[in-house]
Amino acid sequence: MISRFAVISTLRPVSLTVQAVFKRADHTSECLSHSRGKRHNGEAHIQGQRPHDFMPAEVRSLMRSVPHALTIITSHHSPIYSEVDPEAPGEQHGLLVSSFNTVTLHPKPFVSFNIKLPSKTYSAITVSRCFTASGIDSPQTAQAFVNGKHGGVQEMVEQSGKLKNGLGGLWWMRCEWQEYMSVKIGDHMVMVGRVKEAGRYEDSARAEDKRLIYADGEYWRLGEAISSRSDEPPENE
């Protein structure tokens, strides 16, 4: 027969362990609260904002000061690869993004950008399985594509997906969408494409190229270089 003293003695270490776990969890919660801001009813917040709005608003405010290069992304509702004429007619859609970048160059070049859903351009990419990216130096063209969400893209884009002459195009890349590499995160899709063709616009002059960037709610152009460095971009160690 097991005595009451033996049962209590057996349960005591478990009780202490549970208490230790809760104490550690509470300590972790307090650490997170200090890193996020003041606490109100157990949740982090900043003045004038609801608790659950804190992180998005703070990140948005911080990222506004980070310069981002601007790129035009276009696509249309007919395939332009796989034995289909690149000049085949199709309804063009396009948008301005600040997230275009290379993913890797070897063994094959891949690029990526983010697109907010829902999007007609995204729908066009899923149908044609491809898109064209264009670097620009014209704030007028950039703003036209922002306003182009309501129409007007057709007049600025050729059937190939490239910008028409005189719109400030610097370079272009025709890319094949990699659906299996792309992923939905929140209300955005991270789109990945394999570069199939690339070149410079005929009316762009390399010596005068000044890539358009966006920061603090304004359009900017890159200034002069302030130091020399390697041609290779920095990589994570």
Biggest pleated-sheet summary: 8 strands, antiparallel
Low-confidence stretches: 4-25, 27-46, 80-84
- How many E-type strands? 13
Q: Roughly how many Å is the radius of gyration?
A: 26 Å
One letter per element, helices H and strands E, the order comes to: HEEHEEEEEHEHEEEEE
**Tally of alpha and pi helices:** 4
Average pLDDT value? 76
Q: Which characteristics define this entry?
A:
237 residues; alpha+beta; Pnp Oxidase, Chain A; eight-stranded antiparallel beta sheet; three-stranded antiparallel beta sheet; 13 strands; oxidoreductase; Flavin reductase like domain-containing protein; Flavin_Rdtase-like_dom; Split_barrel_FMN-bd
Please outline the helices and strands.
Blueprint lengths: L3 H33 L1 E3 L2 E3 L8 H10 L4 E2 L1 E6 L15 E6 L3 E4 L5 E7 L3 H9 L1 E7 L2 H9 L21 E9 L5 E3 L2 E13 L11 E4 L2 E4 L16
Antiparallel strand pairs: 1-2, 3-12, 4-5, 4-8, 6-7, 7-11, 8-9, 9-11, 10-11, 12-13
Structure in words:
By secondary structure, this protein is an alpha+beta fold. It has a domain at 68-221: Roll (Pnp Oxidase, Chain A), CATH 2.30.110.10. The chain contains four helices and 13 strands. It has helices spanning 4-36, 54-63, 120-128, 139-147; strands spanning 38-40, 43-45, 68-69, 71-76, 92-97, 101-104, 110-116, 130-136, 169-177, 183-185, 188-200, 212-215, 218-221. The strands form three sheets. Strands 4, 5, 6, 7, 8, 9, 10 and 11 form an eight-stranded antiparallel β-sheet that branches. Strand 6 and strand 7 form a beta hairpin. The longest helix is centred in the N-terminal third of the chain and has 33 residues, at 4-36. It is globular and about 45 Å long. The model is unreliable at 4-25, 27-46 and 80-84 (pLDDT under 50). Residues 63-221 form the Flavin reductase like domain. Keywords: Oxidoreductase.
